[in-house]
Amino acid sequence: MQPFTTLTGIAAPLPLPNVDTDKIIPARFLKTILRTGLGKNLFDTLRFNADGSENADFVLNKEPYRRAEILVAGPNFGCGSSREHAPWALLDFGIRCVIAPDFADIFFNNCFKNGILPIRLPQAVCDALAADASLGPNARITVDLERQVVVRPNGDEIRFEVDAFRRHCLLNGLDDIGQTMAHAPKIDAFEERRRAEQPWL
Questions:
Q1: Which of 83, 80, 76 is CA-nearest to residue 98?
Q2: pLDDT given at position 71
Q3: Which among 42, 124, 150, 152 would be 20 to 30 A from 161, CA to CA?
Q4: Boundaries of domain holding 108
Q5: How far apart are the first and last CA of the chain?
Q6: 77-101 pLDDT, tens per residue?
Q7: How far is residue 194's CA from residue 88's CA, in Å, rounded to a whole number?
Q8: Most distant CA pair in the chain: distance in Å?
């Protein structure tokens, strides 16, 4: 998993409430167990018309938001079914951070496990960041996980809280497997010792 330390990128405003995981990645695209290739179908029903053409009014179909790395979302983002494909699709599109007033719990947890930083901030602050994001080419926001601040385009800093263990894992690029592999020398030593002490196993 790619470490998350400091990200300065284009922020896209998507201040819709209750965007569920089926909106993020519709069920018909969940036939893969690969984490790649899902970005093209991110927000499919919002991004594309029935004939497959782009919906020109949707934010991620506009410049500069096609290259967005930060999403400023509405309340209850990621509600609905507990599909891990939702953060996979966001990450494959290029989104590394989602800022919202609140998140559905399972989606929130899945983000951390897949290298996305979800940040909870008050509605009024999210509204201000969405206004910043509406600045188009100047909609660049910095997210500094080490210092736990979001830096607005005008330089103002907004502090956010994140669980210390999850922060450690993101800063070091450790998913569940990476956390286990960090203890590989101790695991190897235990297995060697057990083979010597209990060769019949």
A1: 76
A2: 98
A3: 42
A4: 6-175
A5: 34
A6: 999 988 899 999 999 999 999 999 9
A7: 39
A8: 68
Give the Å distances, CA to CA, from 166 to 21, 137, 153, 157, 176: 22, 31, 27, 22, 11
Does 166 reside within a domain?
yes
Query: What whole-number distance in Å separates Cα of residue 148 and Cα of residue 142?
Result: 11
Q: Where does residue 75 rank: exposed (0-12), middle (13-18), buried (19+ CB within 10 A)?
A: middle
Q: In the structure encoding, which two tokens stand for residue 19, read together?
A: 């965007």
Q: Which pTM was predicted?
A: 0.88
Task: Return the CATH number at 42.
Answer: 3.20.19.10
| Residue 180 resides in a domain | no
Q: Residue 98: enclosing H or E segment and its boundaries?
A: strand 97-100
* Contacts with 69 (C-beta within 8 Å, 6 or more apart), sequence order: 7, 9, 10, 11, 94, 95, 96, 97
State how many domains the chain has: 1
Q: Cβ distance 25 to 86 under 8 Å?
A: yes
Backbone angles phi, psi at 78, to 5 degrees: 85, 20
Q: Look at the block and give the residue holding tokens 């919202």.
A: 100
Model confidence over 108-158: pLDDT tens digits? 999 999 999 999 999 999 999 999 999 887 779 999 999 999 999 999 999
Check whether 183 has a pLDDT greater than 70: no
ω into 185 cis (within 30 of 0): no
